[in-house]
Structures are given as structure tokens and as C-alpha cells.
Amino acid sequence: MTKESVVGADVTQLASEAGCHLFSGCGFPAPGLNEFEFKPIFTIGSIEFNKPMLLSFLCAFLVVAFFWAAFAKPKLLPGKLQLVGEIGYDFVKRSIVLETIGKKGEKYVPMLVSMFFFIWIMNIMSIIPFAQFPVMAAIAFPAGLAAVVWFTYMFLTFKTHGFVGGFKNLCWPSGIPGWVMFILVPIEFFSNIFVRPFTLAVRAFANMFAGHLLIVMFSIASWYLLSPSIGALYGSVSFVVTLALTAFELLVQFLQAYIFVMLASSYIAGALEEAH
Q1: pLDDT, tens only, 206-242
Q2: Apex CA 155: angle with CA 276 and CA 164, to 5°?
Q3: Which residues, listed in sequence order, are joined to residue 49 by a DSSP beta bridge?
Q4: Residue 16 CB contacts under 8 Å (≥ 6 apart), including other chains
Q5: Helix/strand/coil for 176
Q6: Cα atoms in the Cβ-side hemisphere of radius 13 Å centred on 250
Q7: Is 219 in contact with 242 (CB distance < 8 Å)?
Q8: HSE-CB for 176 with a 13 A CA cutoff
Q9: I want to staple 153 with a disulfide (CB 3.0 to 4.6 A). Which of 92, 136, 175, 267 is the partner?
Q10: Residue 241, C-beta contacts closer than 8 angstroms, at least 6 positions apart
Q11: Which residue has better confidence, 183 or 123?
Q12: What is the pLDDT of residues 31-66, one digit of tens each?
């Protein structure tokens, strides 16, 4: 098995070509970090484009194309596409942004709606044939989105409160006795400036990384356990587990997009709140 395998289907194909089954004398071709290594597909100048990059461009195009088609010519009586777009937009606006930020969050709704659907579609790529990879399982993508959130709430913090007031907003919790501030201020500073973007990125990355690896492992196991004898039973059980994990992953993919945007909204709300 080469290190350049890119999806579980590729590993399964290699195992099948070798006739690798439970009682064939070969070991289980367990997936590993090689599942997340991708060769460049093509290069433009010094920039190499691999599978996750192309999928991210595709996801961005799908989100833009959908909302453009849904709202380019809005009607008082919406058609099916506009209706779906309005439901999706209102869900993020009312259930996340306005609930977390309030009326002041109106101007940030387009950014957060775009972020929600972009993340969700990138996650869904893991179950799309020929794609079969959640783009958010590549750390660069959640890290990039977390950086966007970080720059947004840091900019709003200092724009709203000024230089001194911004640091007070980040480091000085309200309603806390002054004698404990010498402990809390460094903790709050480190947490709000460094820990927030780190955990925001790692949470989205780790869930997609683990989910993809589990699905790949049980997909390969379904083939590996398949044999003329009792292995067929084992293979069938593994296949059922694969289907169950895929269904569960659909829920996780949505929840990760929801949690990411909800946390982003809470950070923006903190940046806009009144001075202590």
C-alpha cells in the first residue's frame, strides 16, 4: 500500500487487487495518516493544487451559486429555490446570530450565513462519491476560518472600546472581586486571545478527522472480513457499522458547522458588549 492513497476507496481497491481477506494470509491494511496526504493534481506557478483545495473551491462555488440563484430575482411569493434559501438564511440569522448577538448582529448575518454553509458543505464532501473527503479534516481550512473569526472579533473589540477599553474587555471580567484579578487577568488574556482561535479550529478539525478515519477503517474492514466462510458475517456487520457511522457523521457535519458559527457569534457579541 502506498502512502499516496487519498480516500478509503483507494485503500479498499488496493486490498481487493491483492486479494487481501481475513483468511488469505495478509494483514489488515489499516488506514492511517496516509489517508490525509494528497499529491498535487496540477500546479499554477508555484502554487500546487491538491484534492482538498479543489474541493474547497467547489464548495465555495456551490454556496455562492446557490444563494445567487435563490436571491438574484427575489419574488414576493418565493419559488422552491428561493424558499429553501430563505429557510437556510433565516435559520442561521434567527437561531444563531440574533439569539447570540441580538439586533446588533444584523450586519454580520451575511458573513456568518456564508461561513455556516461553507463549513457544512465542506464537511458533507466526505460522503459524496468521488470526493469522499471532509475538507475540514485538513487543518489549514478550519485554521483559516478561525483566523477570520479572530481578526473579526479582535477588530470589533478595539473599534468599539478603544485601545485601553479593548484590553479591559478581553481581560477584565465584570463582577469579580479585585483581589483575584492578578490571577484572572493573565488567564483571560491568554484564553481570549490565543485559546479561542486554537480551540475553534481544532474542534472542527478533530471531529471531521476522526469521523473520516472511522468510516474509512470500517469500509476497508468490510472488504477485508469478506470471505467464503464465516468472514462474510463479519464483513456484513462491518458494513452495517459503516452505514451507521455515515448516518451519524451526517449529524456531526451539521453540528460542527452550527457550533463553529455559534461560537463565532458569541465572540463577536463579547466584542460588541457594553464596557464593564
Answers
A1: 999 999 999 988 888 888 777 666 667 777 888 899 9
A2: 40
A3: 42
A4: 223
A5: coil
A6: 7
A7: yes
A8: 14
A9: 267
A10: 218
A11: 123
A12: 777 788 889 999 988 888 999 999 999 999 999 999
With both helix axes pointing from N to C terminus, report the angle between 140-171 and 196-224 in degrees, rounded to the nearest 10.
150
Q: How many CA atoms lie within 13 A of 218 on its CB side?
A: 17
192 contacts 166 by C-beta, under 8 angstroms: no
Cell numbers 448577538 correspond to 101
Per-residue pLDDT, 9: 45
Query: For residue 79, what are the contacts with CB-CB under 8 A and spacing of at least 6?
Result: none
Which contacts of 169-178 are long-range, i.e. CB under 8 A and separated by 24 or more positions?
Answer: 169/270, 169/271, 169/273, 169/275, 169/276, 172/276, 173/276, 174/276
Cα torsion angle, 138, 139, 143, 144, sign:
negative
The alpha carbon of 38 is separated from its chain's Cα centroid by a whole number of angstroms, namely 19
What integer pLDDT is reported at residue 229 of this predicted model? 62
Backbone torsions φ then ψ of 217, nearest 5 degrees:
-60, -45
Quick one: which of 175, 169, 176 has its CA closest to 193?
169
- The conformation of residue 105, written as its DSSP 8-state character, comes to G
C-alpha cell at position 166? 479593548
Q: How far apart are CA 91 and CA 88, in angstroms?
A: 5
